[in-house]
Structures are given as structure tokens and as C-alpha cells.
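S.,

Sequence below, as promised.
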Amino acid sequence: MARLFGTDGIRGIANKELTPELAFRLGRAAAHFFGREEKHPRFFIGRDTRISGQLLESSLCSGICSSGGEAVVLGVIPTPGVAYLTRKLGGQAGVVISASHNPYADNGIKFFAGSGYKLPDAVEGELEDIILTGMETLPRPTGASVGTISYRQDLAMEYVDYLCETVSGDFSNINVVVDCANGASFEAAPEVFNRLGFNLTLLCDRPNGVNINQHCGSTHMEGLSKAVLSRKADLGIAFDGDADRCLAVDENGQIVDGDQIMLILALNLLNLASLKDKTLVTTVMSNLGLHRAIKQAGGKALVTGVGDRYVLEAMLKQDLSLGGEQSGHIIFNEYSTTGDGLLTALQLISAIRATGKKLSELAAMMTRFPQVLLNVKVRSKEGWEKNVVLQRAIAMAEAELGEEGRILVRASGTEQLIRVMAEGPSLADLERLAGRLVEVVEAEFN
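The prediction came back faster than expected:
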């Protein structure tokens, strides 16, 4: 049987692949696992706005209770809010029910440890083993030992309070448009921005269960760009479905991606002598322009594999302060244990205000190399790294680009996709080379 956990928890079509039965078993296994050290382990559970969220939430909570655990239901809340509250309030684990930027029919379940960090691979492996082979042997507590469920939507305000404490000063002269993606930030974001005094315009803040990420949010920026221009705003902010990342739009309606945001934040920290070891942690997906810009400013970039867990792993190992991904998933070691879109937005705006420059001027400090990214749907991703035909095609493309560019081919950790990226000085060459690689992938894996 295929393993359950991918790079960001368990994902699938809700009620088909990610079923309530699986959610129940997951809750039961997790409460048993964490109950080894705490008799009645406490789980803080949050979700986004998908119609399937309550279905999975109720099943997960039932599973937790059946193993004697305590489920604290937070309601709709950004993913980093769950991590923050789990750590602050002493939970044994936090659970988020969300599929992030995926369409509404998908959903997912991912865990945080009591520390607020994502579970290590080894712990996820143990949970998988229990679910796949050990469910029948789990004890069933009875009487007073049965678990409980409490509903604490009010705790989200403690997360909002904390976010507001990470910045200071007067924001009343800043005109910002915020796209909530009809997702998990739809209540927290306006609370934060209004409390801090921004001149705020909200978009896509009316979720109905099926409109999360629908032509909005960080994967669909067109509406935000138009709104920024029509309102003559200073900038726009777009969150994804679970609000653990954000992208921006400058005053001219141009998208500012995660690489540019990271550079702005890193240079601000460099100026404050607060960027530890003068190092920014990025993934292999970050643009070559980011590497050149940070180097020219006297800093350096440390490169990891794709995925926020690898960014965080490197940050913790070397005690670094800032890292993230081109997608806008950015981690501030000083403030958070995971990527946080709201926190990123506030820190970005603070950095803009500190320079006295417009966002377009700051974004222009990075010259973005042309980059082509193509997603190829495949029947199976198995064995793609060792496929001789594909590896030969990659080597040929790399040889043609030389030292001025690069090729990156990788399998998605959450979807049946193989991603092909080409980067270099000539867009026409990149499109040709990437297209050739896509043909190879389709021929070999479909």
C-alpha cells in the first residue's frame, strides 16, 4: 500500500481518497502515539474553509477521543495560528485540516509537534505504521478515560494579538488591498490590519465552502493587481488557502514573488545587523537573480531541497534567522516555527516603511532571470529519478545552457505531477528546452 504522508501531510480528494474513516484512524493512532507520554494528550485542531473541513474534523476528533485524547477545536484559523497556539498553550500536537492552495474538492491533514514545528519524518512513519498495520491492537479506554472535545474559536484572537506585537509604529497612511483567498485568513487578516490602523480594502473574504482559491489568492493574482491600481493603493497582499504564505503586488499592479519578498526582508535585516551569519536560506527553486542580489549586498544564500521543512531544518541546524520559498512560504526564526503569510506581510510592510521607498523600487533590486516552470500530469512518479531517458535529456539541456542557466526536474510531493523548470538568460531557449523535457516526461510516464 502506498505511504500516506507526503511532503506536507496527507492529501487527497475529500471523502474519496481522504475519507472520514481514514481521518478517524489517524486521530486514533495519533492520540495513542502521543498518549505514551501524556495520559490524555491534547490536540489543537484548526481548518480552512473547505466544505469538507467539518466532515474530516469531526471524524478526526472522534478518533482522538476513542484513544483517550483531548481535542480542542479552534475552527477556521491560519495554519501558523495552530502551530503558535499548540506551542503556547502546551498541546502535545497541533493538527491542520487544509489542502492549502489546492482546489476546494481536495483536503489534507498535517500535524505539528508540541514545539510548534512539523513532525519529523520518523514520527510520521510511526503513525503510518500504526494506521496500516496496528489499529486492531490499540486499547479502547472506557468510562472516565474516554476523550473529550472542546470548542475554542476564541483562541484565534491570541494568535492575532501576537501578530500585532511583532510590529510597531503608525500604519494609518498605508493603503493596502488584501486578498484572503476565501480561505483561512478571512477573519484573522481584517482583524490584524484593522487593529494596526491600515487603510484596508478586502477582497475574497466571503467563503462559502467551495470558493476557496477560486480565481483568487496567491495562485490567481489578476484581481488583486486590478484592485491595487483602481484604488491607487500602496501595495496588495494575497494569501493562499491556509494563509501560511503570501505574495504581493506593487503600486503599479506588478506581482512581487517570494524571492523578491525574501530579498527585501533579508536586506532590511542586513541593514539592522540582524540577519544571522548574513545568510538567507532558499530552495533550489529560487531565481538566480536572488543569489546575485544577496551576494552584491554582502550576504549569501544557503540552498536546500524543495519544501519548507528542508528550509526550516537548515535554519535550525545553523541557527539562521530567515528562509523561505519562491512561493511566498517564508519563515522568521525569531517569531514563528513555520511559514506565516500574515507575519510575512507585516514584516514586508515594515521593511518598506523603514526604507521610505515604494515596493516597486525595492522589488527592482533583484533582476529576475527568465524562468519557465511546467507541470506535467503523470500516471505514476515512481522511478523518475533513475529513468535513463529522462536523465540523458536533462544532461543534454544542462549542457546547452552551460553556466548561465540551470535545469531542475522534480516530482511533486503532493500531486501526481513531475515539474520541469528551466532558467537562464534567453526565454526562447528556455521554452524550447523545457518543452523538449516535457515531451520526454509524457512519453516515459504516461
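The chain has a mean pLDDT of 95.

Coffee later?
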